[in-house]
Specification:
- It is built from 7 helices and 15 strands.
- By secondary structure, the chain is an alpha/beta fold.
- The strands form 3 sheets. The chain has an 11-stranded parallel beta sheet.
- It is globular, with a radius of gyration of 22 Å.
- The two termini are 42 Å apart.
């Protein structure tokens, strides 16, 4: 009863959930896939209980890649903004949300008729986790410990200067995640780097994105305290992102592990390499012996693998004395 979603569809059912939540903290989930009326109803019945919001999630999915039918950008803009203007006033003026711990705002494309960063007007003294897609963060929270941002569809809606400034002053963040999905290399690299001294964990998720785009984001920061690195990637045959057989997946693995000097200093490394479509028997090279501090390593894949050969300076699988 404490999770109230636009999937409930009707205001009557939403009110019943609110009543049965019996004054406890609640989770609000708004998604345009449930329809405009359901989203409007949810906001209408829940804003009066915003002091109980423990998490808030808003997903606008209509702004994905343009179809052949709807190739007109003006029609796409109308589709992606049809819902949000009617929610603008309700969300902008909520004020203090004392119990909000989790905030998730995902845009297929950043809306223009709506205030996309509506949450910057909120006061959330206990916010701990923020998850954004295609929008730069601006709200500053001294309690934030986890931050995730997704760059999708090459929309260029995330400002690297804003992202850099946000992370530079958010000194309590320890867990950082970047997702690249269909991202191209149109972002302008930053001239200077900022040190994120408190970041201990970095997660990268990559699907059909250029290495230049990934490098541009990563080179905006230094990560002197990084201890844990997790990388997940999907390889799709026939797409421009795909580099060919697994020998080129090896090259991709070597390149991404060498993108940032801090990567070789981690104590924990997790690799997830997924080949979409038919599984293949392939060969995967080992890790470089430059991972001198590595204590934990995991590999997850749907490739049927033989691990032979060498990557970089590794003649064979290195034998770290304390690896688990």
């Amino acid at each position: 009863w404490t999770t109230i979603s636009s999937a409930l569809r009707t205001e009557t059912l939403m009110l019943a959930y609110l009543d049965r939540s019996a004054g406890k903290d609640i989770n609000i989930v708004v998604s345009d896939k449930h329809g405009d009326a359901a989203c409007e109803a949810l906001i209408r019945v829940s804003v009066g209980e915003s002091h109980r919001w423990s998490s808030f999630s808003l997903t606008l999915s209509r702004g994905g890649p343009m179809s052949e039918v709807d190739s007109d950008p003006r029609r796409q803009l109308r589709l992606s903004n049809r819902l949000l203007p009617r929610l603008d006033h309700s969300l902008l003026y909520l004020g203090e949300l004392p119990n909000l711990r989790d905030l998730c705002v995902h845009y297929g494309t950043s809306p223009s008729a709506f205030t996309p960063d509506f949450f910057t007007t909120w006061y959330c003294p206990g916010l701990q986790r923020m998850d954004l897609m295609n929008i730069a963060p601006k709200i500053i929270s001294n309690s934030l410990t986890s931050f995730s941002i997704s760059f999708c569809n090459g929309r260029d809606t995330v400002s690297l200067p804003l992202l850099q400034r946000f992370l530079a002053v958010s000194t309590t963040i320890e867990d950082l995640s970047f997702m690249f999905e269909g991202e191209t290399s149109r972002m302008i690299p930053m001239e200077n780097q900022v040190a994120l001294a408190n970041v201990r964990s970095l997660r990268l998720k990559v699907e059909e994105s250029s290495m230049v785009a990934i490098r541009t984001v990563l080179n905006t920061f230094t990560l002197p305290g990084l201890q844990s690195l997790a990388i997940a990637a999907c390889f799709s045959p026939g797409r421009s992102f795909y580099l060919g057989p697994t020998t080129d997946v090896n090259r991709w693995k070597s390149v991404i592990l060498g993108l940032h000097p801090s990567f070789y200093n981690v104590a924990s490394l997790s690799l997830t390499l997924i080949g979409l479509g038919r599984q293949r028997e392939e060969v995967l090279s080992p890790l470089s012996t430059r991972f001198t501090n590595l204590r934990h390593f995991s590999l997850e894949t749907n490739f049927v693998l033989m691990i032979v050969g060498a990557e970089g300076d590794a003649p064979e699988w290195p034998t770290w004395p304390h690896i688990e």
